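During the reporting period the student researcher (J.K.) took over the structure-prediction task from the postdoctoral fellow and processed the backlog of single-chain submissions. One of the processed entries is reproduced below for the supervisory committee.
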Amino acid sequence: MRSIALILALALPSVALADADPTMRLHFIDVGQGDATLVEFPCGAMLVDTGAEVNDEFDGVAQLESYLAAFFARRTDLDELDLLLITHQHIDHVRGIQSVLNNYQVESIVDNGQRPGSSLTAPYLAAVDAYVDAH
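J.K. obtained the following structure tokens:
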């Protein structure tokens, strides 16, 4: 799955800014069970999956929210996610979708087109569909 993210990341158009760090960085966000990877470019950012484990001891959605807030506070030149890539519709890859879509402008969303994976994932996938319809 990480190789898919790298391939897509490298395929995104990239324009290096004169004073920007020309480094691409991968941020593997601790969301507990599941995945959330932020791919940072000099000119933009993409998020691959949104995790996240949520239980009495750990809130992966809160972790994702905190991490993204800190990222955008540091990268004041960015004001949106260029791409949200959902690799598949398991709850540990989609639980943070609503938070991401509520808090950030997302230029493009790519997933595998399956609807819904389960009754657990249906609300998250419906949020994607609603966001796409509204934008």
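The committee noted the following: Residues 60-74 form the longest helix (15 residues).
J.K. will present the remaining backlog at the next meeting.
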